[in-house]
Amino acid sequence: MFLFLLIFGVILYAVEKYSMQHGLDHVSLTTTLDKVLVEPGEAFNWTMTVKNGKRMLVPYLRITEQVPQGLKFAENDEVVEKKGIIGLRSVLYLSGNQKTELVRSVKLEARGRYFFRGSMVECGDFLGYQTSTESFPEMTEIVVKPTAHPHGEISLLLGGYLGDYSVRNSLFEDPVLTIGFREYTGREPFRAISWTQSAKHNRLLVKQQECMADLSCTVLLNTECRRSKHVSVLLEKTFSMVRSLCEELEKKHISYDFYTNGVIAGAMGNWKRVEEGLGAGHLETVLEGLGRMTYDYSEPVDSFFMRVLKGVRGGSSFGVVTPERTELLDELVAGLSERSGRKVLVICAEEMEG
Fold first, then answer.
1. CA distances from 30 to 63, 103, 140, 326 (A)
2. What is the structure's pLDDT at 353?
3. How high does pLDDT run on average in the chain?
4. Per residue in 85-110, pLDDT tens?
5. Which DSSP symbol is given to 42?
6. Cα–Cα distance for residue pair 217/128, rounded to 1 Å
7. pLDDT digits (tens, 9 = 90+) for 277-335
8. Reduced to 3 states, what is the DSSP secondary structure of residue 123?
9. Which of 94, 246, 276, 310 is surrounded by the most beta carbons within 10 Å?
10. What pLDDT score does 26 carry?
11. How far is Cα of residue 132 from the mean position of the Cα atoms in its chain?
C-alpha cells in the first residue's frame, strides 16, 4: 500500500511539474476581424481563436484580451473595457487538440485607427494550486471612417438641381441635360421613358438628352491649423466635410482626384494623392485615408499649394477643404483660380461651426 501511494505521489508530482512547465506549450491564440474598414457605430465580428495543439488537457486558462479604448458590444452598447479591468477576461477549459472560437459583435463610435494588441494568458497547473502567465502579443488593426457632415451645406455649396436645369450658382453643371422629348421607338431602355409626358400626350415619350463636356474636380485637403486652440475638433469636422464633398461628387458622377498635406498612420504610407477616379473603390480609398489621418501636416499650406499649382491645367475645377481660413490661404486660392480660369470652391470648418 505504501509503495502504491509512493508511486502515485511520484506520478502526481511529475504531472504537476510538467503541467507548470509546459501548460502553454502548443497553445495558440489568434485575433481576427471580419472587416478592416467600418463606419462609425457599424457592428463587426471580433473572433478570438484558442487552440490546444497537444494531447494533454489544459484545465484552466484565463485570457485577458487587450482591446481598443471605446470598444462596445453591439447588442447593448456596453463598454468592453470596464473601469479597473484592462481588456476582456474569459476563462476556458481545453481538452487535448481542442479549438475554441469566441465570437463577439462589437463596434467603435469615433473615427480613427484601432488595434487589438493580443492577450495575457494565465494557465493553471494540474492540481489547481499554481498558475503561470504568458503574453501573446498581436497587432490586429481596424480603421473607422469619419462621419459624413450632418448638415446639407456641402450639397448646397455644390449646387442643387431644379427640374431639368442646374442652379446658376452651382460650381458644376449637370453633365447630362434634358433638352426635350421624342417618341419611343422600342430601342430605348425603359428608364428613359418619361411617364409624366407620356400620360400628358397619350403616347410613349422618351427624354432627349445631351451630354455636356466631361467634368472632373480636384479635392484639396489642408490640415495646417495654427490659430485655433481646438485643432482636433476643427480637423475632425474638416475630415467629415471632405467625406461629404466626395460623396456628393460620386452622386453627380463627377470624377475627382484628391490631394492633401495631411499625415496618416499605417500601411498606406506617405498618402498625399489619390488619382482621379469614380466609384465605390475610389471613394473607399479616400475614406480609409481619412480614417487614418492624424492631426499633423507634412508641409505648410503655401508649399502644398505651390506643389499643386505646378500641374494645374486651364479649366480645372477645385474644391478646397480647410480647418481655418487665413489671408495667406485666400491669396493662394486666388492664384489657383487665376491659373485654372475657374472659381474655386472653399469649404472652411471654422466658418461652418454654427
1. 12, 12, 9, 50
2. 62
3. 80
4. 567 888 888 888 899 999 999 999 99
5. -
6. 67
7. 888 889 999 999 999 999 999 999 999 999 988 878 767 788 999 999 999 999 999 99
8. strand
9. 246
10. 82
11. 39
Whether residue 190 contacts residue 165, with contact meaning beta carbons closer than 8 Å, is answered with no
Residue in the block written with cell 478646397: 320
Q: How do beta strands 165-166 and 161-162 pair?
A: antiparallel
Length of the chain: 354
Tell me the C-alpha distance between 115 and 132, whole Å. 26
Strands (E), 53-95: 58-65, 72-73, 88-94
Find out whether 318 and 336 touch, Cβ atoms under 8 Å. yes
For the chain, domains (ranges, CATH) are: 2-144 (2.60.40.10), 153-161+214-348 (3.40.50), 176-211 (no CATH)
d(CA 275, CA 259): 9
Beta strands 88-94; 44-52: pairing state: unpaired
CB atoms within 10 A of CB 251: 10
The secondary structure element, H or E, covering residue 292 is: helix 280-292
Contact in structure between 53 and 26 (CB atoms under 8 Å): yes
